[in-house]
Amino acid sequence: MGFQPVYREAAVELGKMLAAKNIGLVYGGANVGIMKVLADTVLQNGGEVFGVMPQSLIDKEVAHKGLTQFHIVQSMAERKDMMVQLSDAFIAMPGGFGTLDELSEILTFNQLRITDKPIGFLNVAAYFDLLFDFIGHGVNEGFIRKEHQQNLIVSTDCESMITSLVNYVPVTIAKWIEDIKVESEF
User: Fold this and answer.
1) 138 in Cβ contact with 144 (< 8 Å)
2) How far is CA 98 from CA 59, 76, 77, 102, 142, in A?
3) Domains, the chain, ranges and CATH?
4) CB count in 10 Å sphere of residue 77
5) Rounded distance, CA 149 to CA 167, Å?
6) Tens of pLDDT along the chain (186 residues)?
7) Cα 154 from chain centre
8) 27 phi and psi, to 5 degrees?
């Protein structure tokens, strides 16, 4: 849940906004943590929530039982694949290793143009600032392309986040694969 109440408050605010704008929530289907707060808030405000969880986690009794739809899969990889298929956009909220895992995959999918769906970071209490420092450092050192960094949507408030996601147009990523082939010829 995080130690600061502002994380929970942001989940409640985002949940209310998603429901008010008739935007469904797709998430991992857990009945714990900040995502439970988000899911419960969407549901309490008349919205739809879709969970995706591997059987192994269901067996550990962490599945949310009150969702609009619940998809059971066999693995974490299958879970992430289904979440990508069901989603129109992605919002990262403060979290731990699971958040980092899902972010890494969707950032890579975006980089490789496997998906052009928008990726937003709800940067509550500057939570992601160190990650943005890492990404900026990767750009400065030539490991991350500037256009991939520019494709990320960062906001500290839910309203501007949703507006940016709805209005998203991917940054044109020209011929970066050809460029890195040339750069690798040294």
Assistant:
1) yes
2) 18, 10, 12, 6, 27
3) 5-183 (3.40.50.450)
4) 11
5) 18
6) 899 999 999 999 999 999 999 999 999 999 999 999 999 999 999 999 999 999 999 999 899 999 999 999 999 999 999 999 999 999 999 999 999 999 999 999 988 888 999 999 999 999 999 999 999 999 999 999 898 999 999 999 999 999 999 999 987 766 666 666 677 776
7) 12
8) -155, -175
* Ramachandran area for residue 138 (φ above 0: left; ψ -120 to 50: alpha; else beta): alpha
Task: Determine the Cα–Cα distance for residues 92 and 102; give it in Å rounded to an integer.
Answer: 9
Q: Which of 128, 127, 110 is nearest to 119 (CA)?
A: 110
> Which helix (H) or strand (E) element contains residue 165?
helix 158-166
The C-alpha atoms of residue 12 and residue 102 are separated, in whole angstroms, by 21
Place of tokens 């129109």: 88
Euclidean distance between CA atoms 33 and 58, whole angstroms: 15
For the entire predicted model, the pTM comes to: 0.91
